[in-house]
Amino acid sequence: MAAMALRSSAEAWAGALTFTVHLLLLALLVFGVSWQQQKVDTAQVVELWRDLPSSTPPKEEPPPPPPEVKPVPPPPQPKLEAKPPPKPEPAPKADIALKDKLEKERKLKEQAALEAEKKKLAADKQREAQREAELEKKKKAEADALKAKQAADAEAKRVAAEQQLARDKLAAEAAAAAKREVDKYLAGIQAKVRRFVLVPPSVQGNPEAEVVVTLLPGGEVLNVRVKKPSGNLAYDEAVERAVRRAQPFEVPSGELFQRNFREFTMAFRPQS
Amino acid sequence: MSVLSLITGASVPVQLVMGALLLASLFSWYYIFLKIFTLRRAARQTAEFEREFWSGADLNALYQRAASGRESSGTLERIFEAGFREFTKHRREPGADVAALMDSTRRAMRATYQREMDSLESSLSFLASVGSVSPYVGLLGTVWGIMNSFRGLANVAQATLGHVAPGIAEALIATAIGLFAAIPAVVAYNRFAGDVNRLAIRFESFSEEFSNILQRQVR
Predict the structure, then answer these.
(1) Using one digit for the tens of pLDDT, what is the confidence trace for A144-157?
(2) Contacts for B110-117: CB closer than 8 Å, 24+ residues apart
(3) Of the given ranges (A37-41, A97-101, B144-148, B156-160), which has the lowest mean pLDDT?
(4) For the residues B137-164, what does the mean pLDDT come to?
């Protein structure tokens, strides 16, 4: 009995030590190798970031609001209506007795009236001229204002156009960066798939097969279907199989994936 | 690219090879530890019994103790017990021939010795075969993996190191595991074979000396 117990305890010890040794070996292998790998990893990261434009397009500054051009209120229409000329006074009824005198007086009066009339007319004329000048001035001011406004408008338009241009340029740059990014991923996917394509011996020439691939966000293949068959069924199937076998693919995340990798088309030739 | 991903990414035959090697490694380490304990215990018990025997203890008392505690007794004790039992049985028979008596005693001791040696040497052959075979098995896995890796390479337009390296790394893991299994097994086998040999010499010389002692008792 004692020997049996001894033996089984020895066995238990041996088992436990065996597992310890293997865990140690595994830890050594994993940590030793990953430690070695880490250096390479960091180097790769540096290269990656140096070579690639940042995936997010540079933040666009909101365009400054166009300089506000205050609409110049149209100058009030100058009143052009002139005062009606004064009515000529009715000739007073002359007394016969005082006819001469009266006549004289009348004449004098008339003259005075005439003079006054003249004066008044002259004054009127002057006023008119003044008003005219004022009007002229006003008109000129108006024209100036209009011109200024037009200039401002043109300036604003030009600035806006410039901004639009700058924005377009930025957008174009971002689009180009995105496209480059997309192209890089596409090339990676294509290369990965190509590695898995086993070209059947029955393929003749260099036909092209187009497949539509639907991906999940993790880069897993949801669906593959042949869009444009190459004419060789075996090759089409080989490509399809290769796409399935090559998953998961490296795909970008977020917007870029949604726009470009949800569903996309790839073309394959047996020899490229 | 950690070692674990290399292992999980390997092709099925390579993974099978790795699994077999892992099993071999597990068993060989298990036997290594078991053997360490057994041999150490055997050496200790042998030393104890030798000391007791040569300190001039009464043979009958020793025999009684060995027979009663057979389960916990050491190898040398069992050899002694077998020889002494045979000797006393034979001596009780009337008209026993001395030569025949000694012969049968020696035979009994020999039989026990062989049985004990067999149990001491058990699983040493397993260690030997793990030590000699597992590098080859690992190599097979590696060759298979590299073959696959190159076959995949045939379909790539421009072959870069990046295409080949992961496959080869995957494949080489198999050799690494094979060597991990083989090296301890070989070292342990050599060590244990030496230990068992030394024990065997001690047992044999003891049984010779013991038969001499018994022969002297007959006269």
Answers:
(1) 999 999 999 999 99
(2) B110/B207, B111/B82, B112/B78, B112/B79, B112/B81, B112/B82, B112/B83, B113/B79, B113/B203, B113/B204, B113/B207, B116/B75, B116/B78, B116/B79, B116/B203, B117/B196, B117/B200, B117/B203
(3) A37-41
(4) 81
- What are the Cα distances from residue B22, in Å, to A100, B134, B146, B171, B176? 156, 10, 20, 15, 11
Distances from the Cα of B125 to the Cα of A264, B139, B182, angstroms: 61, 22, 13
Distance, first Cα to last Cα, chain A: 76
Report whether B202 contacts B46 (CB < 8 A).
Answer: yes
pLDDT of residue A76: 55
In angstroms, the CA B68 to CA B61 distance is 11
**Which one is predicted more confidently, A191 or A71?**
A191
Q: Which of B25, B30, B134, B164 to mutate to test the interface with A (most CBs of A within 10 A)?
A: B30
Percent of chain A with pLDDT over 70: 72
List the one residue out of B187, B1, B182, B43 whose CA is nearest residue A44.
B1
Interface of A with B in 124-153 (CB under 8 A): none
| Residues in chain B, total | 219
How close A177 comes to chain B (CA, Å)? Answer: 26
B1 touches B169 (CB < 8 A) = yes
pLDDT band at A41 (very low <50, low <70, confident <90, very high): very low
How close does chain B come to A190, measured CA to CA in Å?
11
> How many Cα atoms sit within 13 Å of A43 on the Cβ side?
5
Q: Which two tokens stand for residue A189?
A: 């996917």
* Residue A264 touches chain B, beta carbons under 8 Å: no
**Could you give the CA distance from residue A15 to residue B137 in angstroms, rounded to a whole number?**
24
**How high is the ipTM of this complex?**
0.72
| Cα B86 from Cα B88, distance rounded (Å) | 6
Work out how many CB contacts closer than 8 A connect A with B: 60
* Torsion angle defined by CA atoms of residues B12, B17, B21 and B24, in that order, rounded to the nearest 10 degrees: 100
Give the residue ranges of DSSP H helices in B55-160.
59-68, 75-92, 98-121, 124-153
User: Which residue in chain A is spatially nearest to B157 when comparing CA positions?
Assistant: A272
Q: What is the pLDDT of residues A190-237, one digit of tens each?
A: 888 888 888 888 888 888 888 888 888 878 888 888 888 888 888 888
Q: Which of B63, B98, B58 is nearest to B79 (CA)?
A: B63
